[in-house]
Amino acid sequence: MPDKTPDPRPRLRVGIIPARRFTLAALANFIDILRLAADEGDRSRPILCSWRLIAPTLDPVESSCGLAVYPEERLGNPRRFDYVVIAGGLIGGAQQVSDEVAAFLRGAAAAKVPLVGLCTGAFILHRVGLMQGYKCCVSWFHRQDFLDEFEGLIPISDQVFVVDRDRLTCSGGASTAHLAAYLVDRHIGRNAARKSLSIMIMDEAIAAERPQPGLPLELNAADPLVKRALLWMQEAVEAPLSVTRLAARLGVSRRNLERRFAGALGLTPAEAGRRVRLAQVRMLLERDESSIASIAAATGFCDSSHLIRVFKAEEGMTPEAWRRAQAGR
Residues 24-37, buried b or exposed e (16+ Cβ, 10 A)? Predict the structure, then answer.
């Protein structure tokens, strides 16, 4: 069959600004949902929606992993888009945007074009004064960085994305795909959103209020050593490190590590590690019907009996009872 002639005006038009040292995966996930929803199969023609990488110049923009993308258009008039997206990444000085980008974002807001912050894009939107009075989503990993930079502003770190009127923000990673699917559902249709997620091997759309996988909020710590230790704990959840080995990897004594945890969290490293693993257990219990034995193996417990005992001491019920309770909410 001959190709269909693209509609003169797609239903969803998105302009995307990649900030310097943006996160490549977050940007790619967002764009691929749009790409797959725009056409039949995965033919990638921008029929139902369009997406353009825009910047002050057409010079390449380097991502946090070193790969670069080339903008397709200069910034121009934001009214040609239904949404303007700022894709963030590494925080700090590397992520400061130019005066031209800041002015463009403010112009989009003045023109009532909704703004989207991917990954740490919420930081950028706040820095240019466009998030006052809005809720925003920040990854649990960058929550303390946000609190340190924006005094008195409390981000949402227990959802995958947040939609507050004409500001949409997400935590990064796979959440950008789900935020894009939300836009596709809203402007093109639910079937198009489901198709895109399915092709990307994502079983279903995740609602905005779905909890972020990651560390429990009570484990947020300002101490950089404790933050690194918590990240190690999460990455090694299947085979937990002993406190002695963890201290060695961090280049400190066990006694020093225990003192830093006590000061930052009021917990021992072992207690914090158990909470990290139990957070992963709760996520797995909610996500699918995996057996307790397989969840125990995936979260570093000796066996299902060990997991049940520890979980019941923490939650007052068995993992299966907790799962049923969540399903009935």
Answer: bbbbbbbbbbbbbb
Would you put residue 290 in left (φ > 0), alpha (ψ -120 to 50) or beta? beta
Cα 199 from Cα 112, distance rounded (Å): 33
Q: Which segments in the chain show pLDDT lower than 70?
A: 1-8, 92-95, 144, 158, 203-217, 235, 329
Please check whether residue 130 is in contact with residue 106, taking contact to mean a CB–CB distance below 8 angstroms. Answer: yes
User: ∠ at Cα 161 (51, 149), nearest 5°?
Assistant: 100
Domain end call among 199, 229, 257 = 199
pLDDT digits (tens, 9 = 90+) for 185-220: 999 999 999 999 888 877 666 666 555 556 666 777
Is residue 2 one of the residues assigned to a domain? no
- Distance from the Cα of residue 252 to its chain's centroid: 31
d(CA 73, CA 63): 18
pTM: 0.67
* 247 contact partners, CB below 8 Å, separation of at least 6: 253, 254, 256, 257
Q: Using only the alpha carbons of the chain, give its radius of gyration.
A: 22
Helix or strand (DSSP H, E) at 180: helix 175-187
Read off the pLDDT of residues 82-105 as tens digits, 9 standing for 90 and up: 999 999 988 866 567 899 999 999
Residue-number span of the structural domain to which 175 is assigned? 12-199
Considering the domain boundaries, does residue 209 fall inside one? no
CATH number of the domain within which 255 lies: 1.10.10.60
Contacts of the segment 36-41: beta carbons below 8 A, 24+ positions apart? 36/195, 36/196, 36/199, 36/200, 37/184, 37/188, 37/192, 37/193, 37/195, 37/196, 38/10
Give the type of residue at 40. Answer: E
Residue 228 CB neighbours (<10 A): 14
